[in-house]
DNA sequence: ACCTAAACGAGACGGTACGTCATGTCTTTTT
DNA sequence: AAAAAGACATGACGTACCGTCTCGTTTAGGT
């Protein structure tokens, strides 16, 4: 029929795939995303250009894949019973990653690219952001059940209250991203989410 | 001698400048930022390429200029005495602009571009974001003096608590940007910033 | 050991061979020799590319084979006793073939290709030209024995005198190839070859 | 209108043109016509590919131009009063050129290419063959007026009788191209063209 | 009838070149 | 002196084929 002919993944060369992803990571590190070319990646990976075009639709998808391969499993979110402490752990971890020179460039590149390419955006968010956000949400749900967060709070909003300010500062570079900043944000947000206490319960 | 030859701005053709900025806006609207080319802009504006290269250093700077010309003066922030109501006005205005199809594409494009180009980023933030942020900060300062915001609050952080979540949702497209959302964010943030009340003042 | 592994012709698939030659003929007819690709031939014939590379060394050889399969046996040269008439029959037949649209394209393609590939040239001449030339030479030998052609004439040269002009016109397209032209050439050449007659025999 | 935009020849870089033609000649000499690539020519000439594509429509046209630049003016045909001698001079000259290693490769390449490209063929014939053929025809006309060639002879045909056999042998490589062969052809052809003499005038 | 080695279809692969597009620089001509 | 026009060297694009190389899958002989 009219279907586009899809390559046969079972015949795919794992060797080439690895070489390509490695080349992408190196190349992004050296010349940045904008000046990264498929041609250079192919050359560095010792691979035909077609092999790249066969398996990745765009430069963005390629870099996303390379970045995913670079990242390990996301650190699990702890539950010590102390919401503030636990949330500060995630926020600091997020922040450390955003600031890590190894990840910063590709992160910015992908963030930029996703602004222009919604399909890539979905992949990007699902693969890299969602897990973190969901884990945080889960932790907040526990806190909510424990009465540390008000019952009526929409946890999706809560998560955005936490991450939003950090990304805002990272994106706009309006001020340095410090762990102190992350902690402050957590404290403010938890204050906002706290259930209305009985008289005298507010610290 | 070794000085870079700077063009003489007094001889600049206003006619060409206007035509170029107009062409850029149209072009971005039609093919998006990525596929916008200097060549096409020059052709559409009936202008030599050199005229563009003479006055703008990069594509990003060109689009930024075009975008600035497109925007009017930012709406002034009201002071009705009701902080919540006033902040909701700004936040809603911000949001409406982010969602306006006429501005969304260039905004995303510039946001993307600034990730890769810190010099452009500074211009972008100073020209487009800072005024809004500063106005908001000023309003919060008034509130702080009026005792509606706790004394110890760092107002720069406060501003980020407000705008961060909105931009987060806009950038990641995790959920629709509604005025209700803006209002909710304002309410939460003000709750967090509220000064510790006397027993019984909460709720 | 170092022997090149030769394919076992006894196991060759006649079905594939036919399909390939058919595909070649069709393909040459549709897109011409230059734009004929092994890939397209394989696809059209429903055959793996390797099957073509296994049995034919070059595109030229492949097309030559396809062309040979297309051609029937060469018409035998008559001997009516009248040299002029007999030669005109061959020359006209040659000409008809050169002008036949079914054969013209591949003929030109092969003629072209042989200019660049002497090995193919030999095959081409031996298979397609030589028989005709030899038959003509044989007829001239008979004529020579019959005293219609001078004794000293080198018959190889005689044959070239006949065919040369016709091919010249075909190759250079300097004028249309008509049967009248073929006849004229035969007449002139026979005049040149005629033995020196006794006084009064000329005319 | 719908006209294709033609480059402005007055701005053409003579420097680049020369470098390109030189590179083509060298490249053809080294790797032959088939393996000559635009890319390699551009690289060797220190020129952008586009500069080649801007001024020449096909590889064939490019090589033809290069070949024309290589050739000097064609030697003028002498008129000593002795037709046979004069014609032998042209034929030998033709032959020498065909056999000259410097010219043979490009000549064969162009002859081949013209088989597939009638437009190029016209240029090729007009520029390289026609002058020679016309000169020969002119000489024959003189001979005809002098009564050395029969009145009724179509001189275009006569020219083909002369050149056809030589090209035939060159193209098919059926036998070595010698000056003796050229002379023989001239003698036969003149014999064929001779006017019917009075008794005793032959020999 | 079974076994085994080949030829086979399919198609991924490393390459090379294609012809096009846009870059930023340069030069020529016009205003 | 700036501007319109556009040729230029450069370099990447994405595509088309090349000829080689696996992959299973037929398909013939040889047993």
Task: Please characterize this protein's 3D structure.
The structure is a homotetramer of 203-residue chains. Chain A has 203 residues and is mostly helical. Chain A has nine helices and no strands. Chains C and D meet through helix 6, helix 7, helix 8 and helix 9 of C and helix 6, helix 7, helix 8 and helix 9 of D. The structure holds a DNA duplex (31 and 31 nucleotides).
Please name the defining characteristics of this protein.
homotetramer; 203 residues; mainly alpha; 68% helix; elongated; disordered C terminus; DNA-binding
Summarize the structure.
Four copies of one chain form a homotetramer. With 203 residues, chain A is mainly alpha-helical. Chain A is 68% helix and 0% strand.
How many strands of chain A? 0
Q: What is the radius of gyration of chain A computed over CA atoms, rounded to a whole number of angstroms?
A: 21 Å
H-E order of chain A: HHHHHHHHH
Strand content of chain A: under 5%
**Which structural class best describes the helix and strand composition of chain A?**
mainly alpha
* Low-confidence runs of at least 5 consecutive residues of chain A: 199-203
Measured between the Cα atoms of the first and last residue of chain A, the distance is 69 Å
Oligomer: homotetramer
Share of helix among residues of chain A?
55-70%
Biggest interface reads: C-D, 47 and 47 residues
Major sheet size, sense and barrel closure of chain A: none
C-alpha geometry of chain A: elongated
Number of helices of chain A: 9
Report mean pLDDT of chain A, rounded to a whole number: 92
């Amino acid at each position: 029929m009219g279907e586009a002919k899809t390559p046969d993944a079972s015949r795919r060369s794992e060797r080439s795939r690895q070489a390509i992803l490695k080349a992408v990571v190196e190349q992004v590190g050296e010349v940045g995303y904008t000046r990264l070319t498929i041609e250079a990646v192919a050359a560095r990976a010792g691979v035909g250009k077609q092999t790249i075009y066969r398996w990745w639709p765009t430069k963005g998808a390629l870099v996303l894949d390379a970045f995913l391969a670079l990242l390990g499993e996301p650190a699990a979110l702890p539950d010590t019973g102390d919401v503030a402490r636990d949330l500060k752990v995630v926020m600091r971890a997020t922040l450390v990653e955003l600031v890590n020179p190894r990840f910063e460039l590709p992160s910015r590149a992908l963030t930029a690219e996703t602004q222009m390419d919604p399909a890539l955006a979905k992949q990007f968010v699902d693969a890299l952001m969602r897990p973190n956000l969901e884990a945080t949400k889960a932790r907040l749900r526990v806190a909510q059940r424990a009465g540390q967060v008000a019952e009526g709070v929409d946890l999706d909003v809560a998560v955005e209250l936490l991450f939003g300010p950090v990304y805002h500062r990272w994106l706009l570079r309006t001020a340095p991203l410090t762990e102190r900043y992350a902690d402050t944000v957590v404290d403010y947000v938890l204050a906002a989410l706290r259930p209305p206490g009985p008289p005298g319960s507010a610290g």
